Amino acid sequence: MKGIVVFVIGLLSVQQLCLAQSKPAGRPAPQKQPTGWHVGLSFGSINNAVEMDFSDRPFWRYNYVERWQYPGLEVHYSLAPRVLATFGLNVIQRGQRVETIQKFADYQDYTLVRTYLNIPVGIAVELFDTKFSPFVKAGMYGAYWLSGKWTGKVPRILDNPYDENYDPGQFTSLDFEAPYEFSENDDTGITENRLDFGFWAGGGLKYRIKSGLRLFASFDAMRGLSSIYTTTREVRDFQKRKNVGYLLSIGLTIPINRKI
Amino acid sequence: MKIKHLLPPLFFSLFILGCVKEEPFVEFDRYPNTPKGNFQAFWDGMSRKYSFWGYDPTNWDEVYDKYVNKVTDQTTDLELAEIFDEMIDGLIDGHYEIQVTIDTVVALYSPGFVNDKISNYHFLLDDEYFETKIFNRLSPGTRKKFQGFVYGVLDNKYQYIRIPSFSIFKGLASNPQFFLEMLEFMAKPAPQYKGVILDLRQNGGGIADEVPLIVGNFTDKELLVGESRYKYGSNRNEFSPWVQQKIYPNPKGYNPLPVVVLCNSLSISAAERTTMALSVLPQVTVVGETTFGAQSAVLFGREGEDSVYAGSFELPNGWTVKMAAEVYRFVDGKLYEGVGFTPDVVVPFDVNLFKSSGRDNQLERALQILPK
């Protein structure tokens, strides 16, 4: 948390520096950019995993999964000419892929995609007061785990010996797709946290066209602040299993309550 | 309870399914080969690989607390084996066994083999009984036998098939004519036949794929027979979702006759899966005694190596722990692991009747159930 505060203060300092550099001496800077409220949409692609410590488990590999941030609401408020408070409301998929490796390879893997209602809030600072401008941003997110879906394969116990391709000497796997059932029992000492909080930071490029309409593309790194599990006893790395991911998104906002 | 069985290492049925990549086994390298190191490796291996956590009533953390201080560097192999035996007492996995080698003696410790499952009478129902007394009751010209497998027509109207183990693929390689004819006999009943007796008593199990090879003859459509899940990580609660287990019909034949499946407490593993799968069908009645209670499959590669993460592991001292790599639950959503599947018609074997007159009351009950 302390790091985020420092980061945000840093962003504001950069913004102040840019403002100072762009002000001609003795005259106020021109207010070309619309201020006030902007609303729009954004969507993107996320590359996510759950951070795990498998240093003593050589037969498992955990990978990132690419999924989507579905088109969602984007609301910006101009706090200052190039400083925006940002707010989002979207549905985002986070996931992880797990597979066996080494001697156990080939017969077991799964991809678990978790769908969240996601609310990111933050501050963005545009570096230049031009049509094209890079920007930096940072903030926090809160998300609610709505649902999940498994896909993967398991060892096939009962093969079909009547299939013309059946080979009795061949060990095969069985593909599956199933909704994820949240763990309600605590006999294993582990329950899932439906709420997830974290921070994000990144940057991008905006393009402002006439009437104040603003297009942007951004790249964010995201990291959960706490495990997606709650444990009632020490269960290896479950207390540390956080969402980590990268989001590449594009969006569009239009000004409302426009002030030039 | 201490149960020590000096049994042939492969007494248990194994699901032998394919080959695996050869890679070094390194997961337990960090434990020293000392009594304490082997204890830690055993406890940790069970934590990681045992498939029934969440169902098994054993509290593995309490087991650790209870036994950790009983193991010292002076603990002998035999004492350590006895401690392991106490630790596993009550585990529900019917395939579970620890293979212990002390000097040249190999011992299997298994909570599944409790005494009431191996009553003396079972030894009366040996291959000789099926290959002589039952074989002689079958109509000449229809009856055949090979290594405990017996089939033919009983009382001129019932198909009788005795399967002593699920080793049919192996049999197809060594005696293809016998096994092809047996499968043909099962799948294509003559018009005069009234019913089928599938005798799975004393069947120790075998190849999992032979379950659908049998059951597929008695269904004309895809048959849901339960669900399975697997360890999906090395933490105690990491499992795959439940995945449906289906059996497909034999496209070359369908036997619609009423079926009685005979089973007893030494109907194990694939024999239980076959019994349970057939019991889903409306024309099937299961008769006999509760099965052994080891339905969830052990998975080995063709060369005896592990093929999936769950299941077997080896301790630093070379002792091996073998257990199911799958958790199987029946179509009713229940687990019968460790408790066995109870027949529709429970008929305890009458030892005295058998000894005094040679009569097989379970077979007689099966004949009463089938149409006259």
Break the fold down into its secondary structure elements and pairings.
The complex is a heterodimer of chains A (260) and B (372).
Chain A: H1 2-22, E1 35-51, E2 60-63, E3 65-80, E4 83-100, E5 109-126, E6 132-155, E7 173-179, E8 190-192, E9 195-208, E10 214-224, E11 229-231, E12 242-259
Antiparallel strand pairs in A: 1-3, 1-12, 2-4, 3-4, 4-5, 5-6, 6-7, 6-9, 8-11, 9-10, 10-12
Chain B: E1 4-5, E2 15-16, H1 35-49, H2 60-67, H3 77-88, E3 97-102, E4 105-109, H4 127-137, E5 144-146, E6 149-154, E7 158-162, H5 168-174, H6 176-187, E8 195-199, H7 210-215, E9 223-229, E10 243-247, E11 259-263, H8 270-279, E12 284-288, E13 299-300, E14 313-314, E15 320-322, E16 327-329, E17 345-346, H9 351-357, H10 361-369
Parallel strand pairs in B: 2-13, 7-8, 8-11, 11-12, 12-17
Antiparallel strand pairs in B: 1-4, 3-4, 3-15, 5-6, 6-7, 9-10, 9-16, 14-15
Helix pairs in contact in B: 5-6
Would you give the CATH topology of chain A?
Porin
Cα(first) to Cα(last) distance of chain A is 36 Å
**SSE pattern of chain B, N- to C-terminal:** EEHHHEEHEEEHHEHEEEHEEEEEEHH
* Annotated CATH topology of the largest domain in chain B: 2-enoyl-CoA Hydratase, Chain A, domain 1
Structural class of chain A: mainly beta
Please, how many helices of chain A? 1
**Number of helices, counting only DSSP H or I runs of 4 residues or more of chain B:** 10
Oligomeric grouping of the chains: heterodimer
Give me the secondary-structure category of chain B: alpha/beta
The tally of structural domains of chain A comes to: 1
Q: Report the end-to-end length of chain B measured between terminal Cα atoms.
A: 48 Å
Level-2 CATH architecture of chain A: Beta Barrel
Number of strands of chain B: 17
Strand and helix order of chain A: HEEEEEEEEEEEE
At CATH level 2, the architecture of the largest domain in chain B is Alpha-Beta Complex
